[in-house]
Design goal:
Low-confidence stretches of chain A: none
Structural class of chain B: mainly alpha
Strand content of chain A: 15-25%
Largest sheet of chain A: 4 strands, mixed
Number of strands of chain A: 6
Strand content of chain B: under 5%
Low-confidence stretches of chain B: none
Helix content of chain B: over 70%
Number of strands of chain B: 1
Order of helices and strands of chain B: EHHHHHHHHHHHHH
Distance between the termini of chain A: 21 Å
Largest sheet of chain B: none
Mean pLDDT of chain B: 90
Distance between the termini of chain B: 19 Å
Largest interface: A-B, 43 and 40 residues
Order of helices and strands of chain A: EHEEEEHEH
Helix content of chain A: 25-40%
Radius of gyration of chain B: 22 Å
Oligomer: heterodimer
Chain lengths: ~110, ~425
């Protein structure tokens, strides 16, 4: 699934960085895993709106993954506030994994 | 600056402080179990109803199997029921009561002191399980989605309480003669409620949810899981009722077939999940757990021989009964725990140590927190150790039994070192903030 955004340039930069945040259980980054649904930027209020999911609602690694996403974006966009929303609609499924992610998992 | 929408904030998982003590206790119990095996002497040559075998069996089922499963259940319950664990305080109380009750029970079985201390141990263990049941039932009550696996968990917990209740009554029966029928008749029911109702139902339910998750498999088949549920539970209930009123008859083969059909369908489920997996490289602990499903066939094949031996009154019946029980406990159950420990505990420890570093800097992966070399040694000691112990019991050969016990002790030592490596894992200074 492709991440929806209102700012292709900043989102590209953010997604590149988010590829360093891994789901420790699956060993795959949150972008290729398809966890990031939406990434919007408000340059005026300097806010990044992140809508993401987890592989399961009560994922034992959930807190570390969301903390990782916030830390990572905070490091790159220091002046911005990160507004993170978790959603399970639609719930995550294996079909959301990117082609690159599938290749990594097949190795 | 970070904000997280309160309505959608990250769902809290069970604290490591609740889960780790169960794992540590179980690891030490495994060590204790193998030491008891070594000192059991000629206990395996006679009737299965004797003090040292009762002590060893309860060390295996309660200290080893149940304590680790309780730990894992508290951790995985939120994933299974799609909701929070009802109470961490209840979980702590479960640990404390069981942790005190189990050694009381095992010690007094070993020396067969049917005094109030044995009764206290039984009551404490039963209380711990009732507290666990309350926690599970309230968590399910508060949950949003009742998937088929939740019914496995619910039913397994019920069986656990019934097993412990009957066990406690049997302990009191030593002193107060509560039952008019022989103690041994009820012992059969007690054992099968625990082995099939608690262990098998819980492992099947949890594994049917976790194995596809670990392998990232697209496979899901609730209809098949419901068939497995009814075949195992139906077979068990019919067995219990029939054996209680009529003893062991040829009808038991029918119940064994129902159980076997349930397990074979579970193998089909695992195979389909394996075939449709996206993650091709499957780690050793998951492979070991999948292999353990095949190990489950051994006690069932033994049961097929055992039934006819009991009906015909053969002298082999007693010996096969011990083989049957030990294949369940030292084979299937031990193999699955040896595997799944290193698939669940590393994540709990990783969360504890590295959660706050996630996204800030590179962190080791959970599988780097334990030694894979020790896992290999664990398998090298375990497989021949298990085979030799079983051969020793079957052939009544003390040399085989002792050699196998030494190898199982080596397995337990290696396992404890690896678990200790995880439990005492600390942040290294060079990557600290």
């Amino acid at each position: 699934m492709r991440t929806i955004t209102n700012d292709i340039i900043l989102a590209g930069k953010a997604l590149e960085q988010l590829k360093t945040v891994y789901d420790p259980e699956l060993g795959l980054n949150v972008v290729d895993l398809g966890l990031i649904y939406q990434l919007d930027f408000d340059r005026l209020s300097r806010t990044i709106f992140v809508e993401m999911t987890l592989t399961t609602r009560f994922c034992p690694m959930g807190e570390s993954i969301t903390a990782g996403v916030q830390q990572c974006l905070g490091n790159v966009f220091e002046a911005y506030t990160i507004d993170l929303h978790l959603t399970f609609d639609p719930p995550w499924n294996a079909g959301l994994i990117s082609e690159e992610g599938k290749k990594q998992l097949e190795q | 600056m970070f904000t997280t929408s309160p309505a959608n904030s990250t769902q809290k998982t069970t604290s490591w402080k609740i889960v780790v003590p169960f794992y540590s206790y179980a690891a030490l119990s495994f060590l204790g179990l193998t030491i008891l095996l070594l000192f059991a002497g000629d206990s395996f040559s006679g009737h299965y109803f004797q003090p040292r075998l009762l002590a060893i069996t309860h060390m295996a089922t309660l200290g080893w199997g149940t304590m680790i499963i309780l730990g894992a259940s508290h951790q995985l319950l939120p994933v299974l029921v799609d909701g929070k664990l009802y109470s961490e305080k209840l979980a702590k109380a479960t640990f404390i009561t069981c942790a005190i009750g189990i050694p009381l029970l095992v010690y007094n079985f070993w020396y067969f002191q049917t005094v109030w201390l044995m009764q206290a141990g039984a009551v404490l263990v039963l209380s711990g399980f009732l507290l666990f049941a309350l926690n599970v039932f309230r968590s399910i009550w508060n949950s949003n989605a009742l998937q088929v696996q939740v019914y496995f968990l619910f039913t397994a917990t019920l069986w656990l309480c019934l097993t412990a209740l009957l066990g406690t009554l049997l302990v009191f029966n030593f002193t107060y003669n509560l039952f008019s029928v022989s103690h041994l008749e009820y012992l059969r029911l007690h054992a099968h409620m625990g082995l099939v109702g608690w262990f098998l139902m819980l492992v099947a339910g949890v594994a049917s949810r976790l194995l596809p998750m670990f392998m990232i498999s697209k496979y899901s088949n609730d209809k098949l899981l419901w068939r497995i549920f009814w075949l195992i539970n139906g077979g068990l209930v019919l067995f219990l009722v029939d054996v209680m009123f009529a003893g062991i008859t040829y009808r038991v083969y029918l119940y064994l077939c129902m159980l076997l059909a349930g397990i074979l369908l579970f193998v089909v489920y695992c195979r389909q999940a394996w075939k449709q997996r996206i993650r091709k490289k499957v780690e050793a602990p998951v492979k070991l757990s999948l292999a353990a499903v095949a190990l489950l066939m051994l006690p069932l094949i033994t049961a097929a021989f055992l039934i006819i031996q009991i009906i015909t009154g053969s002298h082999m019946a007693l010996r096969l009964s011990v083989v049957y029980g030990s294949l369940f406990l030292l084979g299937w159950l031990t193999a699955i725990i040896l595997g799944m420990t290193f698939k669940t505990l590393p994540f709990i420890i990783w969360n504890k140590v590295y959660q706050r570093l996630s996204g800030k800097q590179a962190t080791p992966s959970p599988k780097d927190l334990f030694s894979n070399r020790l896992i290999t040694w664990q398998i090298i000691f375990y497989v021949p150790g298990f085979i030799l112990v079983e051969m020793g019991i079957l052939l009544q050969n003390s040399v085989l039994l002792k050699t196998g016990s030494v190898l199982l002790l080596a397995t337990a030592i290696v396992y404890n070192v690896n678990v200790g490596k995880l439990v005492f894992h600390r942040l290294k200074r060079r990557i600290a903030l």
